[in-house]
Automatic annotation (TrEMBL):
Pathway: Protein modification; protein glycosylation. The chain crosses the membrane at residues 21-41, 53-73. GO terms for molecular function: acetylglucosaminyltransferase activity. It comes from the Eukaryota. Residues 310-435 form the MGAT4 A/B/C C-terminal domain. This is Alpha-1,3-mannosyl-glycoprotein 4-beta-N-acetylglucosaminyltransferase C. PANTHER family: ALPHA-1,3-MANNOSYL-GLYCOPROTEIN 4-BETA-N-ACETYLGLUCOSAMINYLTRANSFERASE C, N-ACETYLGLUCOSAMINYLTRANSFERASE VI.
Length: 444
């Protein structure tokens, strides 16, 4: 540890000297020195230390799981970037944050505006910068290819052609910078909100995806939520630059995965990201684009007591009870839902329940809700073949429009419970999706 701290201190001093003198040759030599030192200590570093090492030198890549790229331009009427950054971090657990690096590319032509925005980000998210979760970058317009006299391929005005062409170059610079930062790269816009635990959901989907892929969409809108392999980023950057003045970015992204033999886009449902902006980055345009597939349960997501889930409802495909059982990241999907069917949650240790929310159905399958049923609280846990249940149950309340919400359990049952049970009271033609179970436990 002492050797490592000494190395950090020495390299920091050398790096600052090189940057101040702008000596490119010294920087290249220093880079080689960095690599030698890096490989000596890499195996002993934690993820956080690797991030700090990357932020310290900016010559060596931190290889985490996911880098998230946002290209942001200031809007005259309303600015959503700070809310987007907050959503990314607040919807990620401490363990998930260890695997994330967010890169914000400030693409304003005005350096004063870039500096002002960078200061706002630093003031609002200094702890995430210190932890290595947030990088802010920018580039001079002098580095861009020509944005004047471009061909009008779709009868657009010159200003519109210039805007979309610059946007292509913005994304090309951003994805090229993010190459080698992580195993995967996620493209977002600067006016979105995220679903809770989006990283774990992405990890699970990729882990279970057996077939090769180039692009996976975690949102149905434009270039929001598009996932790429790290090794494809330099190719994507060149592709965007090659056709920067030909067509809009979302069209180029579709052609990119097609050029790599992925005929159709692979779309994860429900969407993990939602567009919130109303003012376009083109300033004069107001747009209201919403992803109908996005699922978000507002507010807190409850506690995660140790539980097991069981049901006698026939399961569709791989949408088993464990997928939604807290802290599940998926949904339960059952078919042939009949009167008397049930879905039971059994606690490893008894709890006193404070609040409960259960949501059924989804944005895509709005009819797959629980039409008639209620929730029961159970005591005296018993084993039953390969499952478990409770011997005594007491009704707590009914479902309404596919939802169950109750936050005054002190008035219903103040004693410890061992089970929660969803009881179906009417046979229904539609299947049943349970998409979210939020449980709050009374403390003390």
């Amino acid at each position: 540890n002492k050797r490592r701290e000494c190395g950090y201190s020495i390299f920091k001093s050398i790096k600052l000297a090189c940057i101040r003198t702008r000596n490119i040759l010294d920087i290249l030599i220093l880079n080689i020195f960095h690599i030698r030192f890096f490989f000596k200590v890499l195996s002993d570093l934690s993820l956080l230390e690797k991030k700090k090492l990357y932020n310290l030198f900016l010559f060596l890549p931190f290889v985490g799981y996911l880098s998230i790229g946002i290209s942001s331009i200031h809007r005259k009427n309303k600015y959503y970037l700070m809310r987007t950054i907050e959503s990314i971090f607040s919807q990620s657990s401490p363990e998930e944050l260890k695997e994330i690096v967010l890169v914000v590319y400030l693409s304003n032509n005005d350096s004063t505006l870039n500096n002002q925005t960078a200061k706002e980000i630093k003031d609002g998210f200094s702890s995430h910068i210190d932890e290595g979760n947030l990088l802010v970058i920018c580039s001079s317009l002098a580095s861009y290819p020509s944005l004047q006299g471009l061909q009008r391929n779709f009868w657009d005005k010159d200003e519109s052609v210039q805007h979309r062409s610059k946007q292509n170059v913005d994304y090309a610079f951003l994805v090229n910078f993010c190459a080698s930062l992580s195993r995967y790269y996620l493209m977002l816009e600067d006016d979105v909100v995220c679903a809770n635990g989006f990283l774990s959901i992405i990890q699970q989907f990729i882990r279970e995806r057996g077939e090769p892929w180039t692009t996976v969409a975690f949102s149905t809108l434009g270039y929001i939520g598009k996932l790429y392999h790290n090794e494809d980023l330099p190719k994507l950057a060149r592709f965007l630059l090659l056709f920067y003045d030909v067509m809009p970015c979302d069209w180029l992204l579709e052609l990119f995965h097609q050029s790599k033999a992925q005929k159709e886009i692979i779309t994860f449902r429900p969407s993990l990201f939602q567009h919130i902006g109303r003012i376009s980055s083109f300033h004069t345009m107001e747009t209201i684009f919403k992803d109908p597939e996005f699922q978000e349960d507002f507010g807190d997501f409850g506690d995660f007591p140790a539980v097991a889930c069981y049901t006698d409802i026939p399961v569709f495909d791989d949408y088993v009870p464990e997928e939604v059982c807290p802290p599940g990241k998926g949904v339960f999907w059952g078919r042939n839902v009949t009167s008397g069917s049930s879905f039971t949650i059994v606690f490893e240790t008894p709890i006193i329940l404070q609040k409960l929310q259960i949501y059924t159905g989804s944005a895509e399958y709005k009819r797959d809700i629980l039409y008639s049923g209620y929730v029961e609280l159970g005591t005296v846990k018993i084993k039953e073949n390969d499952s478990a249940t409770c011997r005594i149950f007491r009704k707590a309340g009914d479902f309404h429009n596919g939802k169950f919400e109750l936050d005054n359990f002190g008035q219903v049952m103040e004693e410890q419970i061992h089970c929660l049970r969803i009881q179906v009271t009417v046979t229904q033609k539609e299947w049943l999706i349970i998409r979210k179970i939020n449980i709050w436990v009374k403390r003390g």
